[in-house]
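Task card 7
Instruction: Convert sequence to structure tokens.
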Amino acid sequence: MFHHFEQHTIDVGDVPIHCVKGGSGPGLLLLHGHPQTHAIWHKVAPQLAERYTVIAADLRGYGDSGKPAGLPDHSNYSKRAMAADQLRLMRHFGHERFLVLAHDRGARVAYRMALDHPAAVSRLVTLDIAPTLAMYEKTSMAFATAYYHWFFLIRPAPFPETLINSHPGDYLKHTIGGRSAGLAPFTDEAYAEYLRCLQDPATVHGICEDYRASATIDLEHERADLAAGRKIACPMLALWGAHGAVGQCFDPLAEWRALASDVRGRALDCGHYIPEEAPQALLDEVLPFLSTQTP
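Output:
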């Protein structure tokens, strides 16, 4: 995977952030979701690197990035803190303003970055999410059943960590294989990478802290944005899987319009893991959007 890409581990403050970097042109940051790593982008990164300097990073707590112990208020795993990591990473490589394409948990980091640092993000693409606050506040039985982990992982440490660490392989297989497409979209190489990282108890703790932050401090930040009328200022493209829970349980565009000034998007004929399930359909959507000049 990622032939002709360079691997880097960059100290961005209190954690090192691991990434792969390839291509040339405007900066494009790729962020993954749970329980994965930057490897989710391996089917689309080569084509993106023909037009952009692609930096596919592991989030704090995931992959080969730093995994600090969570603070009592989970603030060091807030999307604000995780976004700051990635902003410093891009600045390290000389990109003060850049494009962002992000999936799942990484998309939550990405939209927080766009809210907190509007001068840095020129265009934003989110994959298979709606805003965190809306998803928690509008939870239905169907959503809670499909996304049970949103409520399991936020339990106090070390309960969820203990259960996952007892059988990390089973957790991975059930989590990514239990959705609409099963395990078919995942190559052996990518699956092995996800399993390698999940077998590290520090990764499991980082994942749980990511979710604990989303159910606490991240909601505080989002409520403050809404109360102040702050919105994502850059053009935004929201895509989601037609066979996934986000599109079936929510109206993603309606939810994003409460938080973004310029948003468009649609469902793709796939499930949750869009970059691995429907790589060409994803490229067909994002390449025209990313290449449009932003005033």
